[in-house]
Design brief:
Length: 372
């Protein structure tokens, strides 16, 4: 299949060396792939955990009719351009017997974590259902990290941390998807500080543009134990070469602020990119990854989303995990749970629904977060 789509071989270095062991993958090929994605696609983030970062938490017990404890966390930080904050809303099961594993949603659909905490019963973020299954449910609103519009990278965390004094913004500078992924990392910093959370079992979940950010967050920040992409499509899970629906040209025209300036040059030149999105999935290996699609989401191209799992599998196999093996593209509503890889194609339109969440948790229960 690699040949069919003309994909770059995930196991051959830029210098032509074939990778045959997990150690060589980690030392030689993975760093090179991460650098290629930073250079050509998502851009380079100028900062990791800010030295100035602090957490401020308000706790309310007995919410969700007693089923949950709510924590409202404000993550504060400063850069040369001023102060910023990201709010994190967290529901923990009241009956937990130890630190909870977490599903963190990078929310791209209106405010959930703001002044009026969500009741936790929307299909997009069914926190009550997540808590009932023994997970902590966490959410941050990506627009608190970086507003989702093109303002020349002045607002959000770009305005705080970018310092290109009098120079032009570099063509490989980070853009909005990378900023959102960076925000996920700051939530992870918080989880590591909270004894109620099992920081070794944190999943990052995102839908659509949030799913693109979740995959990049999982690649950049290896503290995430599990990565879930729901209908992330173009420059998310979907392979760009031969992709139907949205193309690199379309996405950069409509959302010029999502990716690095360098990425714009690949409009109509997908086959010249030294990476494709199966390599992003591979960068998450050997950690578990779940990709979900919907039948009517042709813009995202379900078969191209599925293909990235199949083409990332050789890297999982280096670690001894079979992935989805050579599973054919499945029928709707018949989830595939493989070793360290899951996939489903839900009947319906582009959305994040209770069906999707239930499958993510079924997969997590049986693999990444067993024995909760
Ligand atoms: C647009 C965009 C997609 C994106 C989607 C979403 O349709 O073209 O790339 O995934 O918005 O975020 O819902």
């Amino acid at each position: 299949m690699t040949k069919e789509r003309g994909l770059p071989d995930v196991l051959v270095t830029q210098g032509g060396e074939r990778i045959g062991t997990a150690d060589d993958w980690r030392e030689k090929r993975r760093p090179e792939i991460m650098d290629l994605f930073r250079e050509h696609v998502y851009g380079r983030e100028p900062v990791g955990r800010p030295a100035s970062q602090t957490f401020h938490t308000a706790v309310t017990t007995d919410v969700m009719a007693g089923a949950a404890v709510r924590k409202q966390v404000e993550i504060r930080f400063e850069g040369a351009g001023g102060a910023g904050r990201i709010r994190l809303l967290l529901y923990l099961p009241s009956d937990r017997r130890g630190p909870s594993p977490v599903l963190l949603l990078l929310n791209n659909r209106g405010a959930l974590a703001g002044d009026e905490p969500d009741a936790g019963d929307t299909p997009f973020w069914p926190a009550d259902r997540i808590v009932a299954r023994g997970y902590a449910a966490a959410v941050l609103d990506v627009e608190e990290v970086d507003p989702d519009f093109d303002d020349g990278f002045r607002n959000g965390v770009h305005g705080l941390f970018d310092r290109f004094e009098g120079e032009e913004r570099p063509a490989d500078a980070w853009a909005t998807i990378a900023a959102w992924a960076w925000g996920a990392g700051r939530a992870m910093d918080y989880f590591e500080s909270d004894p109620d959370i099992d920081a070794s079992r944190v999943a990052v979940v995102g839908h659509s543009r949030g799913g693109k950010a979740a995959l990049w967050a999982g690649a950049v920040d290896e503290r995430f134990a599990f990565v879930v992409s729901n209908e992330s499509g173009c420059t998310g899970a979907a392979i760009s070469r031969g992709k139907r629906g949205e193309t690199i040209r379309d996405i950069n025209a409509q959302f010029p602020h999502w990716f690095s300036a360098n990425y714009h040059a690949f409009a109509g030149r997908e086959e010249e990119l030294p990476v494709d999105q199966h390599m992003l999935v591979a960068a998450i290996a050997p950690r578990p990854v779940y990709v979900a699609s919907a039948t009517e989401d042709e813009w995202a191209d379900p078969s191209a989303e599925f293909a990235s799992l199949i083409h990332a599998a050789p890297v999982y196999r280096l670690y001894g995990y079979r992935g989805l093996q050579d599973a054919p593209f499945p029928d709707p509503d018949t989830p595939l749970f493989g070793e360290r890889m899951g996939y489903h194609l839900r009947t319906g339109v582009h959305d994040l629904t209770v069906y999707d969440w239930d499958r993510f948790m079924d997969f997590a229960d049986n693999g990444p977060f067993r024995n909760i």
